[in-house]
Write a sequence for this structure.
């Protein structure tokens, strides 16, 4: 009796192995090993920092016009220029804030952007760009230079238009 139980067990085991080997499912098929081709290295671009720096560069163009000779501008043009720098400053502060939150620019960049915003908004709107005090203009320029350094450190160099506007 014992011999018949062992024989039945061996027959059952061999039958199950035979059936498992003959399975037609996709799992039992041997798939060739594919090694992926080496990928090209990609440069990670800090998108938020790039947007913030682009907004700063737009502000820098207006700042260059204000720092230049504005004597030939009419009072109306000076008021429009002040509104433009205020608008550009507000936009720059928002985008730098996003870049700081995203970790792409240091927190000091936001502090400098807000300092620029406070000094620009302190200007007398009736006088236009002439309403920006010399002390405020000096603070704006100092903070702007710091933001520019943060942008360069983040890989966003000063555009050629900005360089030309300064000369």
């Amino acid at each position: 009796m014992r011999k018949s139980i062992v024989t039945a067990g061996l027959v059952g085991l061999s039958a199950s192995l035979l059936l498992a080997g003959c399975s037609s499912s996709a799992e039992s098929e041997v798939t060739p090993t594919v090694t992926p081709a080496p990928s090209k290295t990609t440069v990670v671009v800090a998108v938020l920092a790039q947007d913030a720096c682009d907004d700063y560069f737009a502000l820098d163009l207006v700042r260059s016009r204000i720092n230049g000779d504005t004597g030939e501008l009419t009072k109306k043009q000076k008021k429009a220029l002040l509104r433009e720098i205020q608008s550009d400053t507000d936009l720059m502060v928002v985008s730098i804030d996003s870049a700081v939150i995203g970790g792409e620019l240091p927190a000091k960049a936001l502090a400098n952007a807000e300092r620029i915003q406070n000094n620009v908004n302190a200007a007398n709107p009736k006088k236009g760009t002439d309403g920006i005090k010399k002390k405020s203009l000096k603070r704006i320029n100092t903070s702007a230079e710091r933001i520019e350094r943060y942008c360069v450190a983040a890989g966003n160099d000063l555009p050629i238009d900005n360089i030309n506007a300064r000369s």
